[in-house]
Amino acid sequence: MRAARSLLTAPAAALAATAAAAAAALAALAPTADAATATAAPTPTCKEPAVSVSATATRRSEVLHIKVTNKTARACVVDRIPTVTFGDLDGAAQPVPPTSSAPYRLAAGATAHAAVRTVDPAGGTRPRIVDFVTVAADPSHRGRTIDADALDLPRGVAVWEPVTTWWQPSWAQADIALKAATH
Question: How far from each other are the two terminal CA atoms of the chain, in whole angstroms?
Fold first, then answer.
């Protein structure tokens, strides 16, 4: 009977060894729990010195173009809604279409654009006139103040219920977004 047991256990032992080798091979190919649950680190918020912001007047007196450029060699994020304020008036240009804050990724050296309508030309309301605008890429930034003279608006910037597009890849796309959202 012992001989019969040893004959039965030898194939079982070989099968067990083969199964163990196969399990080891599969384990070596499978990702570890750490790798399976690991995610890429989130892109950091752009520090204010890492970006430059600017504003320019357009042919349409009620529209400004603004832009932000990532001056660093690494991607970072700003808020998808530019922060644009006017002189000493309360509040900022409202986003069109309406949205809440969310990150907008700027690749290294990349530039994003937005269009700001300062006054609704069909509004019929007498706008306020301010001497400067302040543009920030993110609400956590202080922003850059730009005088009306620098915008080539010597009479000042007319403001009444201003709106801004989200950041866009180009000024053309920002203009299209503004037109679509305000007409």
Answer: 94
Q: Single out the residue of 127, 133, 182 nearest to residue 153, CA to CA.
A: 133
Cβ-Cβ contacts under 8 Å for 85 (sequence gap 6 or more): 91, 92, 93, 133, 134, 143
Under the banding of pLDDT at 50, 70 and 90, the label for residue 38 is low
Q: Report the C-alpha gap between 46 and 74 in whole angstroms.
A: 10
Give the residue ranges of DSSP H helices in the chain.
Answer: 2-29, 33-37, 171-182
**What residue ranges in 37-101 does DSSP mark as E strands?**
51-57, 63-70, 76-79, 83-86, 94-95
Q: What is the pLDDT of residues 99-152, one digit of tens each?
A: 999 999 999 999 999 999 999 877 777 899 999 999 999 999 999 999 999 999
Is residue 129 within 8 A of residue 155, CB to CB? The reply is yes
**Tokens standing for residue 29:** 């190919």
Residues found in the chain: 183
Q: Please give the mean pLDDT across all residues of the chain.
A: 84
Alpha-carbon torsion, ordered 21, 27, 29, 30, to 10 deg: 160
Q: What three-state secondary structure class fits 149?
A: coil
